[in-house]
Design goal:
- The protein has helices spanning 22-33, 49-57, 84-89, 109-119, 140-150, 207-214, 222-236, 242-246, and strands at 8-14, 37-43, 62-67, 81-82, 94-97, 103-106, 129-132, 168-171, 195-198, 218-220.
- It has 247 residues and is α/β, with parallel strands linked by helices.
- A hairpin with a 5-residue loop joins strand 5 and strand 6 (103-106).
- Helix 4 packs across helix 7.
- The protein is globular.
- The two termini are 20 Å apart.
């Protein structure tokens, strides 16, 4: 594709950005759809988002931004409006322009993860789920309180990362992103009837996924979650034809 002065810009902001798959995924979709748009990655270190945001806001041909680690909470006070899930979670992963030129954002990590589970044949409704990790350290109490307030029928508790008694076990930590990372749980506690899911998309087969498969567990990789998030983000950003372009 040729980038011109009329090309619309989309971006992902995070650190590090080298392992991210979003630019390749979005640019392939734009090419297939014939959209005059390009998706780029901006590496912004933790703590530097407010300064970078002032510049991004002044780029008038920048229509949308995907937010990844470590900025999903830090971006919230920089936005003019929040969607319903962002208000509950206090975090954002997709931002789009408002009619006035400002920014509004929402969070699609959870819905993307659910989408990945369901497409893999493991609907989470009614399941006992263990989630290991919940974003920034110290958010367990706040997350449990927010879930209990938003979903009164949901039983929520927190404790050590033991998978015993759970149907679905989810690694939501960065453990597994780098070679040599410790496992987020002791795989000896897993049983073959459990479903083990990882949110890390690259590498797709993390050490946890490999260990779970060796025990006979069904697994859901972070790649499926990433694809689910991308579908939702594309819809939020007004990118039509996403399903046909990525199928």
């Amino acid at each position: 594709m040729t980038v011109t002065g009329s090309t619309r810009l989309f971006a992902i902001v995070g650190a590090p950005v080298a392992p991210l798959r979003s630019p390749a995924l979005f640019n392939a979709a734009f090419a297939k759809l014939g959209h005059d748009a390009v998706f780029v990655a901006f590496e912004v270190a933790q703590g530097e988002l407010p300064a970078a945001w002032a510049g991004l806001t002044r780029l008038r041909n920048l229509d949308g931004i995907v937010i990844t680690m470590p900025h999903k909470q830090a971006v919230v006070p920089l936005l003019d409006a929040l969607g319903p899930t962002a208000k509950v979670t206090g975090s954002v992963n997709t931002v789009r322009r408002t009619a006035s030129g400002g920014w509004e954002g929402d969070m699609f990590d959870g819905e993307g993860f659910r989408d990945g589970l369901e497409r893999a044949g493991h609907p989470p409704r009614g399941a006992a789920i263990l989630q290991i990790g919940c974003g920034a350290a110290g958010r367990a109490d706040a997350l449990a309180a927010a879930l209990a307030a938003g979903f009164p029928a949901l039983a929520v508790s927190f404790g050590p990362p033991s998978p015993r008694g759970h149907d679905i076990v989810v690694n939501a930590t960065p453990m597994g992103l780098h070679a040599g990372d410790p496992l987020p749980l002791d795989p000896a506690e897993l049983v073959a009837s459990q479903i083990v899911a990882d949110v890390i998309p690259n590498p797709e087969i993390t050490a946890l996924v490999a260990a779970a498969r060796a025990l006979g567990c069904a697994t859901v990789t972070g790649q499926l979650m990433h694809e689910g998030q991308a579908r939702l983000a594309a819809s939020y950003l007004g990118i039509d034809g996403w399903e046909s372009a990525t199928s």
